[in-house]
Amino acid sequence: MRAVARSDGSRAIWTEASEGFVSEGGRLWFGMAISNAEGESAAKEGGGGRKRKRREEPSLAKWRTQGEQRTYSTKLIEALRRVRRSPPAGATSTTHHARSRAVREAADRALAVAARGRTRWSRAILSGRTLKRRIRPSCFRPKPVGSSAAARAAAERGKPVTLEKKARVLGRLVPGCRKLSLPTLLEEVSDYIAALEMQVRTMSAIADVLSAASSAPAAEPM
Amino acid sequence: MSSRRSRSRQSSSGRITDQQIDDLMSKLQSLLHEARLGSHDRASAAKVLQDTCSYIRSLHREVDDLSERLSELLDAAGVSSDQAACIRSLFM
Question: Which of residues 129-158 of A touch B (CB under 8 A)?
């Protein structure tokens, strides 16, 4: 498996996703099930002369490959360095919140870049990060009257309305997926979950490494 | 946003049946939640959606906690340990 990662953080990460499935698990059969929509979005967004072999890429297996995790961790560490340098620690406890939020956003942005723009959630993260933060409080307007009426209708009508409501809730959780049709939403969700899992794995590994480094600075067998 | 524009197209691959949606959903979520699920029947689409929502929320929480931990570690760590962390993380 070959992963050419440019350490300057540029998007030229030509990790061979189609080779990735060899190293981790056997998710190939699963990738084919949702390969249609992947192919459609890939064809629309292009990718600028990238060698796309066929539509059978295991689109979820890539999130479990070592190469992808290594790439992501490299970018994340660079982003963390920038976070560390830019805001000078001088304020009160608000700095901690601001820092952890900066870390979270840097991690999400790096994750979205790792998705290489083939999914809606990643594009939504990259294009609307600050906007999402600002409009979120105003967008979240709970309509109690409307929801009780909908609940009553759901009890009468049965499954479909409740299902749609839950799908809307799910769409709100994933960035950029509020108004998607159900099949598209499900594919975005599955990719998003796989990406989040990788993010969690990578961040805990980095945290372990950093805590080991800060606790035992002189004991590195290099 | 592109999501708003493309939404008007609805389903570009023709009519998608409910059965198809259900199958796809069960398959997707079952594969993702293989670690969490028991062997009970997960035929209910609503339950699958509910579980997925909770799972995503818990993942978000975990990422937030990790971000907090990382920001604390970043405050404490020196420059040389950063480089050591970099080098070591390449061997992950």
Answer: none
Q: Residue A163: left (phi > 0), alpha (psi -120 to 50), or beta?
A: alpha
**How far apart are alpha carbons B22 and B46 in whole angstroms?**
10
Question: Residue A61 has what DSSP assignment?
Answer: G
User: Could you give the 3-state DSSP secondary structure of residue A64?
Assistant: helix
Could you read off the pLDDT of A39-80 as tens digits, one per residue? 444 444 444 445 555 444 456 788 888 888 888 888 888 887
Prediction ipTM score: 0.72
Q: How many helices (H) and strands (E) does chain A have?
A: 10, 0
> Closest by alpha carbon to A61, among A31, A103, A104, A98?
A31
Tokens read off for A67: 């190469």
Q: Which helix (H) or strand (E) holds B48?
A: helix B45-76
In angstroms, the CA A159 to CA A6 distance is 49
**Integer angstrom CA distances of residue B62 from A9, A117, B66:** 25, 24, 6
The CA-based diameter of chain B, rounded to the nearest angstrom, is 59
Cα–Cα distance list, A98 to A92, A105, A178 (Å)? 10, 10, 27
Tell me if chain B has a CB within 8 Å of the CB of A193. yes
Q: Is B1 near chain A, with CB under 8 Å?
A: yes
- Which amino acid is present at A49? G
The closest of B74, B60, B51, B78 to A83, measured between CA atoms, is B74
> Rounded to 5 degrees, what angle do the CA atoms A191, A195, A197 make?
120
Q: CB–CB of A174/A192 below 8 Å?
A: yes
Q: Which two tokens stand for residue B25?
A: 């959903």
pTM: predicted TM-score of the whole model, two decimal places = 0.64
